Amino acid sequence: MYRIGICDDDKELCSGLEEQIYQITKDLKVKADVEVWYSGEGIRKDIGNGTRLDLLFLDIELVRENGISVGKFIRGEMEDIQTHIVYISARQSYAMQLFKIQPLDFLVKPISNEQIREVLARSIRQKQSLKSCFEYRKGSGVFRIPTKDIAYFVSVDKKIRFATKDGKEEFYGKLKNIMEELSDDFMMIHQSYIVNQLYVSEYAYDCVKMSDGTVLSISKPYRKKIRGKIKQYRRAEIYGEL
């Protein structure tokens, strides 16, 4: 499901844009879910409470909390560099203010159907490509690593540590946000652990042993789901579907 948000205080524009998005994603054979907000305060509250989006059409000239403030909240406080932000505005004079937010695009009203289609197609294409890589921020830098090289993630306080075939790395983040960006090879087995099935050497009822010898426990709420996923994964291996 491709999660798309629209935030604009023009209800007529929101309605029209929502209708176009559903039609275009249908044409592109992508299942989409569209959510609409009419204020910066509203979307900021929901994102702060855990709402995740793949793509957000965000008006700059919102009445109270404007789109630039919302964008800074997403990138800064939420540490979210994965959500594609497409700014929409009746004016073109915002380029420098948007630089640090790194939007996917900037569209000037009125927005054409062709512009929406191009942005949607580009966002979907980039997201599909990113599934093969994991992107994280450390200090002022943004780094990318192939997901096939990552064995597991461990959450410790506010830090995320991950192990690769070449060593270990850490950064500040939230594990639940990371899981949403990973391929089906990865499983969350505990509120603090995500593992890549390719690097699991042994499975037990309540734990897994990784290829580097690390043993990670499977918490009770995840055990039934994990057993089912392991069976499905093993069946795919047997029949050569992986």
UniProtKB/TrEMBL annotation:
Sites bearing 4-aspartylphosphate, chain numbering: 59
Gene Ontology MF terms in the entry: DNA binding; phosphorelay response regulator activity
Annotated HTH LytTR-type domain residues: 134-232
Keywords assigned by UniProt, alphabetized: DNA-binding, Phosphoprotein
Highest taxon of source: Bacteria
Domain Response regulatory: 3-124
InterPro entries: CheY-like_superfamily, LytR-like, LytTR_DNA-bd_dom, Sig_transdc_resp-reg_receiver
Keyword Cytoplasm (UniProt): no
Gene3D superfamilies: 3.40.50.2300, LytTr DNA-binding domain
Entry function: May play the central regulatory role in sporulation. It may be an element of the effector pathway responsible for the activation of sporulation genes in response to nutritional stress. Spo0A may act in concert with spo0H (a sigma factor) to control the expression of some genes that are critical to the sporulation process.
Protein name as annotated: Stage 0 sporulation protein A homolog
Origin organism lineage: Bacteria, Bacillati, Bacillota, Clostridia, Lachnospirales
